Fold:
Amino acid sequence: MMMIIMLKHDICHERCQTRLGRNSHEEMTMPDGTAKPLALVTGVGPGTGSAISRRFAKGGYRVAMLARDLARLRRLEEEIPDSIGIACDVTDPAALEKAISEVGVPKVVVHNAVGGAFGSFMEIEPEVLRRNFEINTMALLHLARLTTPAMVQVGEGALIVTGNTSALRGRPNFAGFAPTKAAQRILSEAIARELGPKGVHVAYLIIDAVIDVPRQRERFPDKADDFFIQPASIAEEVFHLAHQPRDARSFLAELRPFHEPW
Structure:
């Protein structure tokens, strides 16, 4: 699914101020009185992105949610404590910089926005491949450049990227998608090798499964519940990766249902 996200900076500024301003001191701090850390999540749709946002809020984080559907973000703001939704085009470095400046420096960044398309190399429009590369790979580059220097300064933080098996193999009908996910994985590895020794953890999570969202239920109406992976299960692993101890960290992680052939 291609994520085409539009920035509404004036609305973002007003909402950020009012949303963050109405949080009480108790909501903004941990039980020990320290300020809550910030998690920044891109691609907050009805499945994985929303689940990741909920998990980090449950884990004691303020959550900045970036996505294209402003109405959904407003609903999630009401549901998820200490959260802020920002309509933002992740392919626009200036838009990302403005969004990040509104919410502050994140301790954890999760790049979950995805651009995808099916078709052979003869069928796809070249523009589709370029757009998917902007969302999957270039947006990661911009996010990393905008957020990880502050992590390096304090010697901690995490950048988690969600991917899938297209990052490992190219199948005929994935020509407009797989090349961009493979590039995303390699870029993540390059960032991880540079930032790991500086205390910043970078991990790439391959989701080898059909995610349980309404669109996929419609696509596979006869499948049993355990055919799908639950967004909450993905979110749990993302949270785990972001909090691995310094002496035992993973770069490449995989998730799949027990029955999935691999």
Observations:
- The CA atoms of residues 227 and 259 lie 8 Å apart.
